[in-house]
Write a sequence for this structure.
């Protein structure tokens, strides 16, 4: 999936890897600090976009049956974009399925790898992140729904600048880093700091003796460095660990914001909310905000769980092939809705068979050793994937 032997100082492609900051997290802290009346006025800064219901298709609508029960739950797509070039639609380089369980007061996050080979609409099979560029939020949501039997209707997009702004105002965050991550982060941050407008600060690189391979040290990151951390891709685990870093950063930001002062929250909202677009109404955000203050991120993961990294030989693309789409659909439902029975729809089976026909990879090619790219130091935390290897594993090709 990734290009080999790329130097850390080489200019990255225009469409940058970015991290999503949840509007719900911001709303929760605002209610705690200022109250709903004040928050109501602030939410006017958000860019509201009414989606075209004729273009947005859910799995239940297409298949004519209820696949999951969302009573007491909200399913939201969190999306990262970079629109500095003025284009109306860009690739959705970060796509996270967020399940808010109001009964259990918990949040689950599942990152869809951006290069996943899927049917993005009209029978076109290519990288998943192209759907947003082709048809906006409606086509992206439809793609996620029909490939995995989901019923996503709500979405939030945010510009990557919002990540740096939030962390900078909060005074930075602390994250465990390996020596290799520090080296790559320093290279990426040269460009990130220039784009975000923040100072370029190099992190000290420990010697191999002080920080051997496989070990980590707690490191303080400013806003630009935190965004660069979320962009790290060309290390062990490639894009699979990049999405894990993004989920770690979401958790770190949430923790830091819970202890932030009123002035910090006010400044964050003034800078961040104008960089957000959503189809979630102001009324619904206000209704969810107060109870969400007690919620925690209980589990997170990345999917497709079983996959193959194609180097152009199977699909003509450097992409992630789900092996198979049908079995991965089962596993994402097991992760999101463990208490609900699920059987893949005929649509998912059809898409899965097409991918098998195009790639020649079927159930017999599923990897025997799962590796979803989780960060070693974070595998035992409450925010790491709660699914076991047999039900939600990854690929041995992720390293």
């Amino acid at each position: 999936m990734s290009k080999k032997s790329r130097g850390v100082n080489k200019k990255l492609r225009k469409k940058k890897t970015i991290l999503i900051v949840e509007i719900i997290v911001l709303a929760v802290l605002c209610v705690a600090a200022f109250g709903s009346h004040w928050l109501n006025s602030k939410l006017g800064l958000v860019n509201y976009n009414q989606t075209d219901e004729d273009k947005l298709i859910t799995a239940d609508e297409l298949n004519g049956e209820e696949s999951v029960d969302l009573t007491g739950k909200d399913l939201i797509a969190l999306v990262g974009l970079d629109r500095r070039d003025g284009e109306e639609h860009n690739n959705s380089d970060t796509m996270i399925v967020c399940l808010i369980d109001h009964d259990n007061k918990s949040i689950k996050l599942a990152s869809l790898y951006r290069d996943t080979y899927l049917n993005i609409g009209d029978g076109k099979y290519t990288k998943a992140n192209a759907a947003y560029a082709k048809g906006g939020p409606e086509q992206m949501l439809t793609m996620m729904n029909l490939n995995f039997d989901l019923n996503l209707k709500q979405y939030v997009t945010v510009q990557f600048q919002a990540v740096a702004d939030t962390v900078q105002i909060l005074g930075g965050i602390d994250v465990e880093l390996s020596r290799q991550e520090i080296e790559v982060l320093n290279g990426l941050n040269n460009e990130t700091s220039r784009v975000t407008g923040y100072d370029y600060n190099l992190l000290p690189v420990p010697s191999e003796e002080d920080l051997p391979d496989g070990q980590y040290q707690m490191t303080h990151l400013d806003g630009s460095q935190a965004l660069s951390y979320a962009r790290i891709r060309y290390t062990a685990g490639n894009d699979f660990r990049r999405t894990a870093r993004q989920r770690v950063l979401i958790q770190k930001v949430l923790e830091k914001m819970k202890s932030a002062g009123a002035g910090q929250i006010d400044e964050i909202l003034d800078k961040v909310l104008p960089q957000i677009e959503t189809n979630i109404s102001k009324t619904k955000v206000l209704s969810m905000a107060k109870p969400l203050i007690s919620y925690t991120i209980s589990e997170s993961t990345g999917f497709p769980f079983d996959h193959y990294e194609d180097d152009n030989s199977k699909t003509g693309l450097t992409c992630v092939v789900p092996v198979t789409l049908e079995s991965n659909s089962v596993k994402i439902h097991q992760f999101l809705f463990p208490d609900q029975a699920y059987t893949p729809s005929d649509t998912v089976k059809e898409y899965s068979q097409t991918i098998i026909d195009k790639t020649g990879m079927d159930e017999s090619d599923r990897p025997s050793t799962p590796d979803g790219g989780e960060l070693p130091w974070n595998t035992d935390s409450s925010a790491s994937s709660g699914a076991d290897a047999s039900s939600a594993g990854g690929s041995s090709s992720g390293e």
